[in-house]
Amino acid sequence: xxxxxxxxxxxxxxxxxxxxxxxxxxxxxxxxxxxxxxxxxxxxxxxxxxxxxxxxxxxxxxxxxxxxxxxxxxxxxxxxxxxxxxxxxxxxxxxxxxxxxxxxxxxxxxxxxxxxxxxxxxxxxxxxxxxxxxxxxxxxxxxxxxxxxxxxxxxxxxxxxxxxxxxxxxxxxxxxxxxxxxxxxxxxxxxxxxxxxxxxxxxxxxxxxxxxxxxxxxxxxxxxxxxxxxxxxxxxxxxxxxxxxxxxxxxxxxxxxxxxxxxxxxxxxxxxxxxxxxxxxxxxxxxxxxxxxxxxxxxxxxxxxxxxxxxxxxxxxxxxxxxxxxxxxxxxxxxxxxxxxxxxxxxxxxxxxxxxxxxxxxxxxxxxxxxxxxxxxxxxxxxxxxxxxxxxxxxxxxxxxxxxxxxxxxxxxxxxxxxxxxxxxxxxxxxxxxxxxxxxxx
Length: 442
Known about the structure:
Elements: H1 34-65, H2 68-79, H3 81-95, H4 98-121, H5 127-156, H6 161-189, H7 193-211, H8 230-240, H9 242-258, H10 261-272, H11 276-299, H12 306-325, H13 329-356, H14 360-392, H15 394-419, E1 422-426, E2 435-439
Antiparallel strand pairs: 1-2
Helix pairs in contact: 1-2, 1-5, 1-6, 1-7, 2-5, 2-10, 2-14, 3-5, 3-14, 4-5, 4-7, 5-14, 6-11, 6-13, 8-14, 9-12, 9-13, 9-14, 9-15, 10-11, 10-15, 11-13, 12-13, 12-15, 14-15
GO cellular component, one term: plasma membrane
Pfam families: MFS_3
Keywords: Cell membrane, Membrane, Transmembrane, Transmembrane helix, Transport
């Protein structure tokens, strides 16, 4: 998929995307590496706590204000700093030891969550304090994200990278499966402050894991020297490669419109089905259950192809729209599971293609662009989808969140097909692969 001649020679020559068959016993191959195994176990706790905190903060804002649009603003504040600092964070990732960067940024998360939990538990919390905490956490995430993405390779090497990306997604959504359900129950019984406090503790576990890693077994990338034009160099590099450019374009539509589930699910629980915090936790858990299944399927995926990303984006959009139009409650719940599967397959495919198409010497900067689109898109989309849900209702919010990415993916798919003298075939009779791109008949 990636020809070495597509990019300038030198340190940033691309790594080809390969598709060797995956054996059943290799589904968890990355866990054979001690440092990654330690990291993985810590992330099980950290991601569960993080999902508990997300549910707690979103619901806390809704309780304090009763305004779904402010829930969207809270989501945006956690992601907007990625638009401001994302490119600079990529330079930091390429210049400084990534493990050290992660220790600092995740320690900030421990402190902020501890302070916010104390305010909530003492009954002194105010809306502005929650918004400030969301903004500080968002800044920490913006600096942390490129180093976290690129650090995976330093732990497992390129051969196990795709597997590690899928396992990371799996543990992230395993936390999403357990965290919202536990957090919803805790909010009902003892309040949201304890969910935030738990996240402060689990974040401390993640920092501890980084501190005790076997540094001699890491494979640190060459550090980029300080020089002018490093961000421009990365922009030219990313724009010149289809296997970086198109995943990021697709991601832009999906992240702005289709990755604001906290807003959509809060609106559905509050306005459409009136199920409260327990329902919100249930909805989040169902979506995470589907995503966890998608992560396991992704870990066994043999190839990473643009047509697969297009198909996943289309399916994700259609299922999201169907969730808004579901004629009965059971269909809505089932749609949330399917939504999670499609979202995960798209997300892991896009990230794996981008990372595997980028040389280590420039990967931090390229991943910063990827994450700027991912997190910045959610910042913009949080406000937009929140406003749509508040103004037109959650059903319209779901439909818009699904229809726009699906249409954009179809347009991109047809454009790619025409540019390569191919054609797009959509055939529901082939349920395993309904969307295909094949040579045009003569």
